[in-house]
């Protein structure tokens, strides 16, 4: 089934203890659509860039089967740019530069050919823009998932609450779940957040894995213990894109299928952090992905016969 | 099969955001033997207390089927005492008081009736004393497991390395694994530590679960997401006691059975943190434990058919 992904397509400049990059392609919608493309070839992008964006990067997305009809290219304007430096433990980072550029006036356009979409992924963006995308779809998709961040909790609380109330799956990290709910215990945080609208809540804990909560049900998948995390940029978006891409490819939104989606999502995210930016997830092959999923099976599966 | 557990039997005074206790029974060997007693009734304690220790606490251990023949009671001396205060996040604590008392001159005695033991658990103690216990057993047990802490890495490195070289399973937390190996990545840390002697390494990550590493194999179990962590004291020792108690009850030291041991260990530890000290693990019943294990199964199990 078809999937629309809205979010940023941008330039990132990254610095980690292992090295630094010039401006490379980044942005939430870039990671989401690339990750989803490993499961479904019906991925439709909604985003905006300036005319400084490389044609080769747009071609790269198209070669993954991603429709760029909803990607606006603003003549004479510059693409969103973010630059950050990770600390030695890779769990924290400093933002060095944020230039909104085209993002400051982003008015999302939904092409007519996108209107039949069944799955919608709202990548991290201004809540008001996320809401506009929902409103501009003539028919509500079967499943709407959104990602957001603490920045919007601090600056656009009411708009954020409004969008959250319209989605089926909310995906945030542990600190954001605590801030959103005012609860330290993630179990209590999940209970509260599930009263705000979403039926499902994903809490991402980075190297410590991810929870999927539903009323009275919870599933957990660890992150793969890696020799080295090279660059965490985009891992959360890759996770989200892998999850909803898997759901869209199967058309099955049962809790059991969402568990499988979490495992595939975790596998894709584990590749993402192995190289800078999108480098590792641009050219995965199916065997690599399958064997990574098998590593997750081996990591957590056990057999207990209850008496 | 029979299990010897050596460690501290002590008084603790605890302070958490939820309240505080007077002196209550604590100590690594207390938690280890109590936890193990849910799996095997052949648990033998080696420890030392002063004559300030309550007879009722010793009777409580005996009522769990724990042999106290190896528990020395030193007339005119005081038991080991530790007092600590947990911070709001429960992940860090300040030590308020440490009085070694009888522990300063602990000379472990292995009763003749203990000599047939097949499993040995060396709870956190001076490495030299842990080594003495191994030396005083006439026959090497089938499996020796040890727990230790960063304090011994800072103060008794050589003795610690010596004991580690003599055990089969080492159990430490994530920060200790990093300190012991000099590696930040837990996967790299595990590879290094597995060259120091132990064939198996357990890395405990508290609320983030635990890894079991063997050369070329790794298993992970999450901690149960709890509404509230009331008091983390003893959770690691309860985990260790549950693990080795389960192995001793089955006599099976295969990697697959160790996975089951980790799940039972995690279930017991999840009870431990629900009340102060040993309060919650003194009176568990089998149904409670089984239904907690079932929660772990539901938390992590999924079905994926690889193409």
TrEMBL record, chains A, B:
Protein keywords: Kinase, Transferase
Record's signal peptide: none
PROSITE patterns noted in UniProt: PFKB_KINASES_2
InterPro entries for this protein: Carboh/pur_kinase_PfkB_CS, PfkB_dom, Ribokinase-like
A Pfam family reported for this protein in Swiss-Prot or TrEMBL: PfkB
Any one Gene Ontology molecular-function term assigned to this protein's record: kinase activity
PANTHER family assigned: RIBOKINASE, SUGAR KINASE
Entry protein name: PfkB family carbohydrate kinase
Organism, as annotated: Xanthocytophaga agilis
């Amino acid at each position: 089934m078809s999937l629309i992904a809205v979010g940023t397509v941008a330039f990132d400049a990254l610095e980690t203890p292992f090295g630094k990059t010039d401006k490379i392609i980044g942005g939430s919608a870039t990671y989401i659509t690339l990750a989803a493309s490993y499961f479904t070839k019906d991925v439709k992008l909604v985003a905006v860039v300036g005319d400084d964006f490389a044609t080769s990067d747009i071609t790269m997305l198209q070669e993954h089967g991603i429709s760029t009809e909803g990607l606006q290219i603003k003549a004479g304007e510059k693409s969103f740019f973010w630059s950050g430096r990770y600390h030695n433990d890779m769990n924290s980072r400093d933002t060095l530069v944020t230039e909104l550029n085209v993002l400051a006036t982003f008015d999302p356009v939904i092409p007519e050919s996108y209107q039949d979409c069944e799955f919608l992924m709202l990548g991290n963006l201004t809540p008001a823009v996320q809401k506009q995308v929902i409103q501009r779809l003539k028919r509500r998709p079967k499943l709407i998932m959104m990602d957001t961040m603490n920045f919007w909790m601090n600056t656009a609380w009411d708009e954020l609450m409004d969008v959250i109330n319209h989605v089926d799956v909310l995906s945030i990290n542990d600190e954001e779940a605590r801030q959103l709910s005012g609860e330290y215990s993630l179990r209590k945080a999940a209970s509260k957040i599930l009263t705000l609208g979403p039926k499902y809540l994903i809490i991402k804990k980075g190297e410590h894995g991810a929870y999927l909560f539903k009323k009275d049900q919870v599933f957990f998948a660890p992150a793969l213990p890696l020799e080295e995390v090279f660059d965490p940029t985009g891992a959360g978006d890759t996770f989200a894109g892998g999850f909803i891409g898997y759901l869209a490819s199967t058309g099955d939104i049962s809790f059991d299928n969402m568990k499988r989606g979490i495992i595939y999502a975790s596998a894709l995210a584990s590749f993402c952090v192995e190289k800078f930016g999108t480098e590792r997830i641009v050219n995965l092959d199916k065997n690599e992905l399958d064997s990574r999923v098998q590593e997750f099976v081996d990591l957590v599966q056990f057999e207990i016969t209850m008496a």
